[in-house]
Write a structure and sequence with these properties.
With 153 residues, this protein is mostly beta strands. The protein has one domain. Helices cover 9% and strands 39% of the residues. The chain contains two helices and eleven strands, in the order E-E-E-H-E-E-H-E-E-E-E-E-E. It has a five-stranded antiparallel beta sheet with strand order 5-4-3-2-6, with helices on one face. The chain has a four-stranded antiparallel beta sheet with strand order 8-9-10-11, with no helix packed on it. Strands 1-7 form a two-stranded antiparallel ribbon. A hairpin with a 3-residue loop joins strand 10 and strand 11. The relative contact order is 0.24.
Length: 153
């Protein structure tokens, strides 16, 4: 099943989509997640290399990507990311946590891919592939049929 133009994402309190919703200017997807620098090979010191990010993606009322605030205090423990995200959320006028539907988008920061990216995860006969999955990077939230807004990790 092909990816819909607007991908629904359910607001789930106390889970990874607890800070999504709408505000006076449109829609938002905010969260804290980690990523590794390009080319990093996982080893016993992985915690020293992982970068924690506060992320606030904004979309217009139709689900089109507008812009993002993305902040990282540097490699290692993510000191300050919770506070930074709370400041950004507090600054959204008319903020309401709720389900959203957004269009795929992507950008690169610090060499790391951010966004909701269409992918092909199915096996199709005769090599006829189609995008059937949308993955939120970094962090690995996967959205797929029945396109009900629930994610897989």
């Amino acid at each position: 099943m092909a990816i819909p133009d607007l991908i629904p994402i359910q607001h789930e309190p106390d889970f990874r989509t607890e800070t999504i919703g709408r505000f006076d200017g449109g829609l938002f997807f905010a969260w804290i997640t980690g990523g590794f620098p390009p080319g990093y090979k996982h080893g016993p010191d992985w915690g020293d290399h992982k970068r924690w990010y506060a992320i606030l993606h904004r979309f217009d009322h139709s689900g089109n990507y507008v812009d993002s605030d993305i902040w990282c205090p540097g490699p290692g423990p993510g000191h300050g990311v919770d506070e930074r995200l709370a400041e950004w959320l507090d600054a959204l006028p008319g903020r309401e946590y709720c389900d959203i539907a957004i269009r795929p988008f992507q950008l690169t920061v610090d060499g790391i891919l951010f966004g909701l990216v269409p992918e092909c995860h199915g096996e199709y006969p005769d090599g006829e592939e189609e995008d059937d999955w949308a993955e939120f990077y970094p962090g690995g939230l996967g959205f797929s049929p029945p396109w009900d807004g629930l994610y897989d990790t």
